[in-house]
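Hey, resending since the last one bounced:
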Amino acid sequence: MDSPSKETITTTALDAAIKGTLVILPLTIAVIPWGILAGSFALDAGLTPMESQAMSAVIFAGAAQLVALGMIKAGVGLTAILITTLLITSRHFLYGMAMREQISPMPLKWRLTLGFLLTDELFAIANQGKQHKLDPWFAFGGGFSFYLGWNIATAIGIIAGQTLPNLDSWGLDFAIAATFIAIVVPAIKKPSILICVLVSLVMSLICELMNIQAGLLIAALSGMACGTLYAKVTGEKA
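The structure tokens again:
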């Protein structure tokens, strides 16, 4: 059998990247108001336009960015900001653990690239279970297009924030909740996942009411534990 030519491999990689871009496109569009809010809010927090854009380009973590900016605006110390953002982004550790078997065999350049591009949205489209082999070009296409969309939206927010007053009062933050709903709901295909979601929801509300900063991590771990326990007790198929 003839080995595939270099041109064929390149075309296959490009096709996979385009497919990843198209699959994540609805989530990229949904996150635009969120990105605009991040750009505008960064200016309100006292950052320059260049610093505001650099924050999205380097940190690339929507919820953590907004929380950190709010703390900067409130004059909170650097240590508290770092601890809080670490807790918020700790779910990425869980994402990495879930995808470990698929990503570990990849070369270092792929692990670093996909690790930087890993978001809630990329995890939702790329993590299709252990029985599916992850195509790195598919994940790269989805992750990089989402990265571009986030940074373009931030740039729009920076420009709009300099010309339109009170942009944060336009209700753009609803995009945060809408994006997570769009990620989670399609994934509820089994009772164990439904239990996981419901337990996480209740625990996150309890932690929020009790002002527990590690609430996100506690809610996620509680949901996973209950969902896994249900699956084992009932013998639910994977």
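The mean pLDDT is 83.

Sorry for the duplicate.
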